[in-house]
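Lab notes, practical 5.
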Amino acid sequence: MKILILGAGPAGLTLGNRLKEKGINSFLILEKEEESGGLCRSVEFEGEPIDIGGPHYLDHRSERVMSYLFGFMPESEWNLYERDSKILVNGQLINSPFEANLWQMDMDSQVSYLESISVAGCNTGSDMPEEFKEWIYWKLGRRIADDYMIPYNSKLYGDNLDSMGTYWLYKLPNVSFRETLLSCLQKHAYGTQPCVAQFYYPKNTGFGELWRRMAERLENHIICNQAVNYIDLGKKEVRTKTGDVYRADIIITTIPWRTFDTILGMPDEMKEQLRTLKYVAIENRYVNDDVDTKAQWVYFPDMKLPYHRATIRKNVWPSMHGMIIEINQNRAKLIPDNAPYNYKFANEYAYPVNTIHKPEIMNAVLDYSQKRGVYGLGRWGEHQHHNSDVVVELAMDFVDKLVENIL
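Output from the prediction step:
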């Protein structure tokens, strides 16, 4: 075929639908699972939908993306929410981001945290470090680092925390010391929230319904149960674990590069660098317990608790129950075998880790493969922690440029 797409998650489904809209029908999507949707799939359990990848949602930022996706699932089928996320630290529940909401804590805690922030490196003129862990202390001070940011991120990223860079910090809230001080004095949050200040979630279904409908539009352009583990950049050929062979003029991979057991046509040194890319495996468990809070998400830095985050379902799905707890798979072993849970799903590839040298590795890989007609796109094709709305826009832009410049 003309175009072969690996993976039927948000990136692959958007690519396929966009190609079809442009009148290009010589394409095929290979998906390793039994159904499309990737990390954004939903399943039905006890009459209610559960998102197997945890708390996914449609960010409100891009009118272009929302308009496009509402073409598959109309806006009338969604609820729009203001984000409400909280942190449970030292027995006190405050809103996120932490440094913008110190005013919600007792006075002694406020003073202690403010004293610590005031002597943080960013406020005393020291150079910004290149390592994420050191940046936490430099930006937020020792108290917030030790009480919240270090334990929380250690629970999420595990040992990978020590190797993470700082180039991705645009995704985090940016609150200055002055804004933190003002928030304590005036009793309301200051600072900027870079993403997900508002979000959409379906009224009556799981988030996976959107991607299921997108897959329906593609009909026989998707083949499931096809796990690709071999790629030849020179021949533009892939093979699956069942022995099937597919060739195309252009290949677009949205699956992790590390899932290829064999990569031909790529220098050995580059393949070795790909093997150094880090990622986090996550287990999501549905627990049929309700929590007395209006927050959609609660973050738990306490190292005694195996999980780091909980989604409170009734605050996203008003008619539903329980919560989804998210656990780094290496910490799931800390949960007793007899611990109550109603449903669990493990995602080996959940979050790419932003290690210090990842940008130069991926830039080299993507540049090299692109010159051979093989493109990487999306969270795993680019090894970037993109949310689904970002992935959709990237895929839309990619097809537009592909049609204009190549096809």
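Observations recorded by the TA: DSSP finds eleven helices and 21 strands in the chain. The chain has three domains: 3-42+205-278+353-405, 85-195, 279-350.
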